[in-house]
Design a protein that fits this description.
The chain is of the alpha/beta class. Helices cover about 35% and strands about 25% of the residues. It contains 10 helices and 10 strands.
């Protein structure tokens, strides 16, 4: 059995914990960590989930794999002890990985692994396949309801308001690295796309606050020596407007693949 720890019991972490507690072949919910322990304990008890709440630094002794469903600021605290122990971390805050190449080096040195699930983004398999050849261009355009971008550091730093918009507004153009830094809770998809393809500096992005949409919309355009393709996905927001419902389900699917007798997708 693969023992799984869940870091964070918010919108995504609760779905993952619930699915693990209900039973997934070859996987067991070993423990969880949460900033608000009282709230997390109340939720676990209400759901009838028997799962110890521990500090993050206890994960390596209790689990083989940790799922990071926490704020990006905690990535280092979650990943480093697990990777030091040669274990696996599934990372959702992909943007926080970009300035931390040392974590990837640590995983390589200690025999650990960092898994970035598909998350909210369609087509990462196609991009990783194309990257085995030569990719000339990757561009991503993101359109979100204004509330899904509110409070982003980039908007606050540049005094950009997304309140009371009556038409779409482009709030950022730049590289995937810039998008990940400026919108850490909103566009981890840009970081994941860049890691799958040609890197954060060569991957271009546009981010729009769009009052005409009620879903988180991402369009990827890729030109490579093997294919040219455009992918578009419209994700239904979860109770947290910054996160699509499909993100949690993507984590569940990635976990299920670990022990599935049939694995579909790269």
């Amino acid at each position: 059995m693969t023992r799984v720890a869940v870091a964070g019991l918010g919108t995504i972490g609760r779905v993952v914990a619930r699915r693990l507690a209900d039973g997934m072949p070859g996987l067991t919910l070993a423990c969880a960590a949460a900033r608000d322990r009282a709230k997390a304990k109340a939720w676990l008890e209400a759901e009838g989930i028997d799962c110890p709440l521990v500090e993050i630094d206890a994960f390596p002794a209790l689990a083989d794999l940790a799922v990071e469903c926490a704020p990006a600021s905690l990535l280092e605290q979650i990943c480093r002890p697990m990777l030091e122990a040669g274990k696996t971390v599934m990372v959702l805050s992909a943007g926080a990985l970009l300035p931390r190449a040392d974590l990837m080096a640590l995983a390589k040195a200690r025999g650990g692994q960092i898994i970035v699930p598909t998350g909210a983004l369609l087509g990462l398999d196609a991009v990783t396949a194309a990257a085995e050849g030569s990719i000339r261009m990757v561009r991503m355009t993101t359109r979100k309801p204004p509330g899904g971008l509110a409070g982003a550091p980039y908007l606050e730093a540049h005094d950009i308001s997304v309140d009371n918009l009556s038409e779409p507004k482009c709030v950022s153009r730049g590289t995937a690295r810039e998008a990940a830094a400026g919108f850490p809770a909103n566009v981890n998809v840009a970081a994941a796309l860049s890691l799958a393809g040609i890197g954060p500096e060569a991957t271009s992005t546009e981010i729009w606050a769009d009052p005409t949409v009620d879903r988180n919309c991402h369009t990827i355009e890729v030109e490579a020596d093997s294919a040219r393709f455009t992918l578009r996905i419209e994700n239904v927001p979860s109770e947290n407007p910054k996160t699509g419902r499909i993100t949690a389900l993507s984590v569940v699917a990635a976990l299920r693949k670990l022990h599935s007798p049939l694995r579909v997708g790269t």
